[in-house]
Structure formats: C-alpha cells, structure tokens
Amino acid sequence: MIALYPGSFDPATIGHLDVIKRASLISDKLLVAVLHNANKATAFTLDERVEMLKRLTHKLKNVEVISFSGLLADLFVKCKANAIIRGVRTISDYERELVYASANRSINEKIESLFIPADPAYLHISSTIVKEAAYFGGDVSKMVSPEIIGDVKKKFAVKDQRED
Questions:
Q1: Which end of the chain is less congested by CB atoms within 10 angstroms, N or C?
Q2: What pTM did the predictor assign?
Q3: Is residue 7 domain-resident?
C-alpha cells in the first residue's frame, strides 16, 4: 500500500512525526507530501520544510519526502497511492478533514482517506503554536524534534528587532 501524508509542515512538529511513524507502520510506502501553496504564506520555504522532514524521517526506510503543488487528487493518481493519511487532533480537525476527504472522493472515487487520531500528549501542538511561541522567544523544545529545533530558533531569532 502506498499512502500519502500531505501537509504544509511549517514547521513539522512532534505530532506530525508521530503520525508519520504510525502511518509508516501500516503502509508499504509512505510519501510525506509537502504542499507548496502560492496563496499561503509560510515561515519556512518549501525547500527548508522538505529538508527538515528528510532529516526527521531518514531512519524510516519506507518513508519518502516529496513536494507538490496543485490538487492532491492529481498527486494521488500520479503516485499510484491507495490512501491519504490525515492526522486529527480535535473535533474541528475531524470535521474539516471529513469535508476534504469528501471533496477528494468526489474528484476521484478511488481516493480513500484514513484518519489517525493524535496521541493525547500532542493534542495541544500545532505548527501555528510553535511559530508563535518561537516568535516570542518561548521554549519549543517539547513541540519540535531536536533535529530541527536549531532551524526553528534561527528562523525566529530576530525577536529583538520587533516592536511591542
């Protein structure tokens, strides 16, 4: 089974990594697909996000990190995938992902979406919270993996130049 785990991963959190590890156990090949969306502002460039994920997943032999833009349904066909993996933390995540799953299935009836519930220890972690905490000089060491904490700190190291 080939599974796709799409997302912005801006930056990848320990919650994302947990979903990646768990999804890799139920798939023969897991493609972590980093979205390039020209309409969405990101803190990290596409290349930075891909590179960080490659560092985080290099020990997972059946995981490959790729980038994409456009419709996920098109990538699904191109990669000959069998399922789309989505991590869900909250009821609102589930409701949003259910709409996306329905939309993808209306585009291509072969698209199956599998939801992996977040580990309770990671329910409070999101990329948005990581960026906000890092922006204000907060400790993000319990939200991102040690392999990329330097990247996060470096990206937001200009705190002293901001106005209150």
A1: C
A2: 0.92
A3: yes
